[in-house]
């Protein structure tokens, strides 16, 4: 029983990480039709910026408020990079899918190379609050606090995103734009501002995933974003493009499946099962769990 | 003669290698309804979409479109709409996942007071169904929402594409009544296949054939010419019941 609880909660921790990466990816694809392979770069930037800030930014550090400040710096860096990518590289290429893919794939490769050139290819220990190295006993299972932190962060981000989509004008524009972008412009709305905004939101969530993921893994490395991005794409497809709620359901399904199968089967089998789940969903429900509608 | 509200000159549109519009020229009078007629596939919807800047990116638009002194073709759609060009698309295009109230709220513009009183006076049902998802409305109700959304703001010209398509006869009459009232205050360029609606609403007519203007003039006179109507539209005006 303890093992099941432990696997469930660590699986949810993994799901939380996937959700943080995939939610922005899903909104960007749902609204702007951009398949952003550079999304993993935002995660890497967030992780490295947090790591850098914890050691160098005045007031920031590995513990207490200093850590919060370091993470905030990392998130801000992720937002900045995401907005720049949208304004400079993506904006001239809307509706040019092939060029978008080439540019974003190139950018993700260049981003990893840049991180490697600056801080080396090896993983570096990540400064993290001491309590995140501890475990909390829940129903007899010792659950890593870093995983619980990810779950709390993902729930807060999910709540904030739903409130934003439900209650703000830009949220309304994004929900409408996911359904019919052209008609949004035909109502006199400059939908490009919403594109920039979803990139900023996606960049923030991915950068947060980078920082908290590094806490979870205990280190930061240049390739971390790319490997998580593969599962984030799977989550987006299973959840349905443009749906934050679908993304949350899919992240939970993928995280739990991976964790349980890897434990009770052989290591790595969980990854294969996730691909199998993707295939089943594509066969039975090609539009994903929640279709192409942004749900609030 | 008063200045036209819209002047289209030598408008050509190519999409994916197809030359859909081939030098179309016409004007829209500053009052009443000007109807754009023609058989299926002659380029009526393409004309409206070119005017409002919604030609697909793989399309090429040439010619001149002016609303007053303002040239329209180089401007993005959202600016044209904010400048007073209202557009009600074919198939309504309401946002099905949003509520009726949210569909209307989306059309509000910063710095202006949305005319909810006017919209709810024309379509009381929209007020009653504010919390209902637009996707669950009937076709007629969706059409009313699509028109209501545009009427929340002041317009200098309305482009309305096949508003009665697929609607029940009773609803067609209701939509025609609304457009008649709307046209009292704002000029309308209407694409319509239902000749009974055309007979009721239209003052002027422009008939397209194979991407070119085949006839322009008084709409009521056109409908009286059964042989001409039959040759241009493939249906005699006498066959249509009001």
UniProtKB/TrEMBL annotation, chain A:
Its main location: membrane. This is Branched-chain amino acid ABC transporter permease. GO terms for biological process: amino acid transport. It is found in: Cell membrane. One of its GO terms (molecular function) is transmembrane transporter activity. It is a multi-pass membrane protein. Belongs to the binding-protein-dependent transport system permease family. LivHM subfamily. GO terms for cellular component: plasma membrane. It comes from the Bacteria. Keywords: Amino-acid transport, Cell membrane, Membrane, Transmembrane, Transmembrane helix, Transport. The keyword Transport applies. It comes from Micromonospora globispora. The chain crosses the membrane at residues 6-27, 34-53, 65-89, 101-121, 146-165, 194-217, 229-256, 263-284.
Automatic annotation (TrEMBL), chain B:
The keyword ATP-binding applies. Residues 6-235 form the ABC transporter domain. Coiled coil: none annotated. Transmembrane segments: none annotated. GO terms for molecular function: ATP binding; ATP hydrolysis activity; branched-chain amino acid transmembrane transporter activity. This is ABC transporter ATP-binding protein. PANTHER family: ABC TRANSPORTER ATP-BINDING PROTEIN (PTHR43820:SF2), HIGH-AFFINITY BRANCHED-CHAIN AMINO ACID TRANSPORT ATP-BINDING PROTEIN LIVF (PTHR43820). One of its GO terms (biological process) is L-amino acid transport. InterPro entries: AAA+_ATPase, ABC_transporter-like_ATP-bd, ABC_transporter-like_CS, BCAA_Transport_ATP-bd_LivF, P-loop_NTPase. Keywords: Amino-acid transport, ATP-binding, Nucleotide-binding, Transport. Belongs to the ABC transporter superfamily.
């Amino acid at each position: 029983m303890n093992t099941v609880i432990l696997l469930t909660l660590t699986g949810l921790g993994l799901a939380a990480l996937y959700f943080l990466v995939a939610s922005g990816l899903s909104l960007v694809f749902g609204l702007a039709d951009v398949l952003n392979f550079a999304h993993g770069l935002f995660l890497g930037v967030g992780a490295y910026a947090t790591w850098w800030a914890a050691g160098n930014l005045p007031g920031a550090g590995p513990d207490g408020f200093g850590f919060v400040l370091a993470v905030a710096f990392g998130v801000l860096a992720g937002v900045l990079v995401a907005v720049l990518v949208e304004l400079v590289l993506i904006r001239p290429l809307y509706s040019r899918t092939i060029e978008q893919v080439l540019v974003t794939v190139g950018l993700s490769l260049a981003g990893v190379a840049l991180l490697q050139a600056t801080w080396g290819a090896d993983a570096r220990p990540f400064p993290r609050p001491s309590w995140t190295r501890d475990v909390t006993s829940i129903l007899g299972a010792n659950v890593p606090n870093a995983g619980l932190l990810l779950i709390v962060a993902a729930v807060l981000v999910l709540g904030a995103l739903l409130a934003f989509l439900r209650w703000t004008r830009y949220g309304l524009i994004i929900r409408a734009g996911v359904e019919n972008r052209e008609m949004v412009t035909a109502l006199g709305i400059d939908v490009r501002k919403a594109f920039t905004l979803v990139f900023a939101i996606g960049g923030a969530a991915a950068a947060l995933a980078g920082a908290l993921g590094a806490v979870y893994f205990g280190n930061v490395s240049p390739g971390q974003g790319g490997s998580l991005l593969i599962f984030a794409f799977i989550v987006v497809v299973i959840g349905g493009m443009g749906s934050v709620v679908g993304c949350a359901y899919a992240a939970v399904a993928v995280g739990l499946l991976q964790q349980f199968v890897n434990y009770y089967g052989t290591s790595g089998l969980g990854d294969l099962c996730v691909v199998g789940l993707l295939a089943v969903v594509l066969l039975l429900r090609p539009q994903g769990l929640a279709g192409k509608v942004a749900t609030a | 003669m008063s200045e036209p509200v819209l002047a289209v000159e030598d408008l050509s549109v190519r999409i994916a290698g197809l030359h859909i519009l081939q030098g179309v020229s016409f004007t829209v009078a500053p009052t009443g309804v000007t109807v754009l007629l023609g058989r299926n596939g002659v380029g009526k919807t393409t004309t409206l979409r070119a005017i409002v800047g919604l030609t697909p990116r793989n399309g090429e638009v040439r010619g001149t479109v002016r609303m007053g002194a303002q040239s329209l073709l180089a401007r993005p759609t959202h600016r044209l709409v904010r400048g007073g060009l209202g557009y009600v698309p074919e198939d309504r295009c309401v946002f099905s996942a949003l509520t009726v109230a949210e569909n209307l709220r989306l059309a509000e513009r910063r710095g202006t007071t949305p005319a909810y009183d006017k919209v709810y006076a024309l379509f009381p049902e929209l007020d009653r169904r504010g919390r209902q998802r637009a996707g669950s409305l009937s076709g007629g109700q969706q059409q009313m929402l699509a028109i209501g959304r545009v009427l929340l703001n002041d317009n200098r010209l309305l482009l309305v594409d096949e508003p009665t398509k697929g609607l029940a006869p009773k609803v067609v009459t209701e939509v025609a009544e609304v457009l008649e009232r709307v046209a009292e205050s704002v000029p309308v360029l209407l694409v319509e296949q239902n000749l009974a609606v055309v007979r009721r609403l239209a003052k002027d007519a422009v008939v397209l054939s194979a991407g070119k203007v085949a006839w322009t003039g008084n709409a009521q006179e056109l409908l009286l010419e059964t042989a001409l109507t039959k040759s241009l539209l493939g249906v005699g005006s006498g066959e249509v019941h009001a």
